[in-house]
Amino acid sequence: MSTARSLVTIILAVALLSACSQVRPWERGYLARKEMAWNTDALESALNDHIFFSKEAASGGDNTAGGGCGCN
Amino acid sequence: MKPKPSRSLIALSTSALALPGISLADAPPTQSTASYKISNYQEDDLSRKEAPFGDLDRYNIDVHQFKLISPVGRNFSVNIDANYETLTGASPWFTSVGLDGNPDVNLSGASGIRDKRTEVSIGARYYLENGSIGSSIGHSEEDDYRASYVGFNGERHFNNDLTTVSLAFSHSADDIFPTDAELFGRVISESKYSSSAVISVSQIINQFSTIRTAFSSTEQRGFLSDPYKLIDFRPDNKTQLAWSNSYRRFFVNRNAALHLNYRYYHDDFGISSHTIDTSWFQNLGRNYQLVPSIRYYSQSAADFFTNIDDFLKPLNEYQSSDYRLAAFGAISGGLSLVADFGNWTATLTAERYVASDKYAAYKVNQPSTALVKYNRISLGFDYSF
Amino acid sequence: MPLTLRRLSFQAMGSPCEIQIYEESRISAKKITQILSSEVSRLERKYSRFIPKSFLSEINYSAGNSMGIKIDKETRALFNHALSCFEQSNGYFDVTAGVLNNIWNFQKEIIPTESQISELLPSIGFNKLQWRGSRLYMPANMTIDFGGIVKEYAADAVARLARKIDVQYGLVNLGGDFAIIGPQPDNQPWPIGVADPKNRKTLIAKIDALEGGVASSGDYERYFAHLGKRYSHILNPKTGWPSAGLRAVSVAANLCTVAGSIATTAMIKEEPEGIKWLEDSGLSYVAMNQREEIICNGWQEPSATAE
What we know:
The complex is a heterotrimer. Chain A is an all-alpha fold. Chain A has helices at about 1-20, 40-55. Chain A has a domain at about 30-55. Chain A contains two helices and no strands. Chain B is mainly β. Chain B has one domain (about 5-385): Porin, CATH 2.40.160.40. In chain B, the strands form two sheets. A 16-stranded antiparallel barrel of chain B has the order 1-2-3-6-7-8-9-10-11-12-13-14-15-16-17-18. A two-stranded antiparallel ribbon of chain B has the order 4-5. The longest helix of chain B has 11 residues, at about 5-15. The mean pLDDT of chain B is about 85. Chain C is α+β, with helices and mostly antiparallel strands. Chain C has three domains: about 1-50 and about 145-190, ApbE-like domains (T-fold, Roll), CATH 3.10.520; about 55-135, ApbE-like superfamily (T-fold); about 190-305, T-fold (Roll). Chain C is built from eight helices and 15 strands. Chain C has helices at about 25-45, 55-60, 75-90, 100-105, 115-120, 150-165, 255-270, 270-280; strands at about 5-10, 15-25, 70, 130, 135, 170-175, 175-180, 190-195, 205-210, 215-220, 225, 230, 250-255, 285-290, 295. In chain C, the strands form four sheets. Chain C has an eight-stranded antiparallel beta sheet. The mean pLDDT of chain C is about 85.
């Protein structure tokens, strides 16, 4: 399946990147900023996930589904 | 000019960097944070042209979200989440062919739907030397729907915390018991189960950027049809796969951060989709932040989607006119203003979402007339203590 | 409002401390410095030898207890760093030598007898610590002293916390151990000077630092002279006697914790080895030897007087 193939490629790419990248912890100030988080506002993303889950067919990706609701 | 760092210096730096106050690895929160958000979600009314009979109003939902996260001891944190929604409006009941030969939507019951949903979940997280593990349990309750779920997840940092791998599993058991089941000949009670697993890998690229790729798989079994539709018959098994990629970059000169996300999705109802969204977090001085964001979504139709309910089709053949199974595209845009005053943060968000077959990236053989447009406005507060 | 340098001075870990940040608003600067100084007090309450209820005191009470004591993640990481100090210094920098503080009293200027010292040497030695999972088992009489590690770690932790709450320009100074939060506005370095121990108004060396930390170790604060011999409070864990090494060392490194570990080790080693250790580290340092000569690498000659 092409999806699985691309996944392998991207994981390989990540491994290669990690081999050459050497960002020391005291150089990670910008990365530690709140607006650089994967998820900056827990309630906002929970609400959006919930709305899109009930209005669109797609779900999942980077989080597991919680409980369902009668909305879908 | 600079001499190469000695072996001793490397050894001492490595052990110093593992100190929790210095490393960026997960650490238990040192403060408690309570958050509350109130949102109003309002769908645009259908025009009389699209729904010649029945109600024109669609959903209007008020959502109250509450979250409390607190450290317990030195290595633990616990969190409680609660969610309360009140809903008024109507959702499509069945479609019929209108006088002009185009599908019409008939909205259910004159009184409309009036429902509320309450969800509570609790979770705990334990912080280890090189990562953390957590679990959560939750319950959601509506007049006609009940869901209980458990989840486990763990993450581990490698490679001087440059790489993080995380795994998550969850399982949900849902019960559906439609209202007025006997009156309308609906199913009395049905169940569905879903299990999902996610693996994700994130990597620090340089001082300013990180990427993450994640793969999720969800298996649903049981009653997956819509009990309120006159005709709606779907397979009782569904496998969903999603692959998502995220990128974050900080721009020092502009004092802003860029978020970029892309997701590909496929399931065995025959639906594929692309989602791409981006946000720009612009800091305005120390206390304010303005965040415009835009999102594009498009999906293909399920194999058994029909935009006109076929009352003559054999009952054992799959069919559904649920607009969520149609091919369509959706564009949404939002703007948030964040005000940060030390212990307090306030966030105001406005969002507009428009779904249309015109925006579809996939071929639309049968356009659905029930696609939604909505406005959402939220006001949230966080308080740390 | 323009960015203004704002300072908070306080007393912690037995030393005068100061946090300097550039902030527009005085009120938010006050809040920020309060958050930061509370991190210093948290670490002081946890790791002070002088607070009977500190976690370090609990650890020390557990010496000889067959039940051991459960160690949390942060303390475990401190022990791991202490192990690396022990290994890299060939056993000179040893946090398990705290028991020597009981017999060497630098206030009362009492010199212990040779037999008092040799009695205590068996309760010293990092390799005598036993670990089972997260439980630590210490031999009887052993005393842990995180001097040379905890104050430096606190400076780094405060700087890291400051960056996390969006402070861009600032400097943390915990009794002469410095950690840089971020450079001064317009990417200007922070000038950090080493004062002459004999005359606090004169600088003996100066370094301009954009990032990282600077730590110092010296015997000027606590020593005594007896019968013409100078007794430093820096004790050699192998002999139990004060080390006859360098008088004072300041080191600049990527982290204050690393600078502190290098400087403390240099002080405990005898003089020529101490200088060799500093040279081998590849870091910028300034040291004063027994003859009060200044040995300097990477630091500038002073051009100004201290404030």
